[in-house]
Amino acid sequence: MKNDLIIQKIKTKWNVISPYLNEKATRLWAASEALSFKKFGITNVSKATGISRATIYRGIEDIKKGSDTSRIRKEGGGRKTIIQNDSTIQKDLENILEMSTLGDPESFAQWTSDSVGNITNQLKIKGHKISNRTVNRMLHELDYSLQANKKTNEGADHPDRNAQFEYIDNKIKEFQKNKFPVISVDAKKKELIGDFKNNGKEWRKKNDPRKVNGHDFPDKDKGKAAPYGVYDISENKGRVSVSISHDTSEFAVETIKKWWNKMGKPLYSDAKEILITADCGGSNGYRTRLWKWELQKLANELNLIINVCHFPPGTSKWNKIEHKMFSFISINWKGKPLKSLQVIIQLIGQTKTKKGLEIKTEIDEKEYKIGQEISKKQIKLVNLELCDFHGEWNYKIKPNKN
Predict the structure, then answer these.
(1) What is the distance between the alpha carbons of residues 159 and 162, in angstroms, rounded to a whole number?
(2) pLDDT in tens, 207-224
(3) Could you list the residue range(s) of the whole structural domain that residue 126 is in?
(4) Per the structure, how many domains does the chain have?
(5) How far apart are CA 144 and CA 112, in angstroms?
């Protein structure tokens, strides 16, 4: 009976103090409490608190040795993270997310339409031992959050949308396996040049906001900046050409050419083919004859087979360049007026990420004409080979022999 009262007293003290103790402090408190008894101290403390006898013994050893007070546990101690124990789990998780990742290209945030339970089951099928709770933690560490399971305001989904995603994903893996270049291309939205308000906030002295124009009428002399980007999916590197001219297919292909000559060729000197992923509309749209015409000229000049895969209508935000490069550019210049082309170039070039994103950029001073027409007769000269699956979206352009 007396022993039961002792255990109850220890338990009362433990319930009061335990919320304030870290791992080491818990061990030392339990040890000191056990040492206050002549006998049965370790047993009583263990029963009252649930702390293992081994932990209490370790605490007693710490007290006797006078352990280092700056460290909670021994160096290298503690449970290994799941990534340390399972070297492939993060890669498998990212691959699963690739097929269900949504997001705003102008935002850092990404989200997934898969539930945590579904993702956990898919990882288990791949042979990983993991719980829903661990998957949830890993998703947050990768800057994901679980939100709506379907995007809105995209219009009607194409029935082969997901099949096209899988086709593109498999094509990318095939090219990466062969060490051939895979690039994602697109035009970023045009930006007003001058002292105009730029969305976002920046750190400044209190009550000292940056003063900008009270209107958003374009400056006739400065115009608008038209950035076009190329993102190397395998290398996490990109190139952006900035023009005050028009966003045309000629401008788009010229940017790809500059990327190849200055960044791609040194990395992929033995490549015989290149894969481009692009939106289905705009200057690089699948219906745009000028796009294919200019790509033919590029294929001839570089002597490369150019493969193109377009994302289905309403799904441009899945294109890698949107959330792997453009989103970070927007974050880097938020709140800063884009006063000149030089400022825009500088801010794009300064864009970095923890995962090592690097961006080269330059001003393209060439004047690109709009309204260029490619006739049916001309388009027949394009050495175009349509793929079996949705040839309008997936095709290759080979160099002409003559």
Answers:
(1) 8
(2) 444 444 444 545 555 568
(3) 82-146
(4) 3
(5) 7
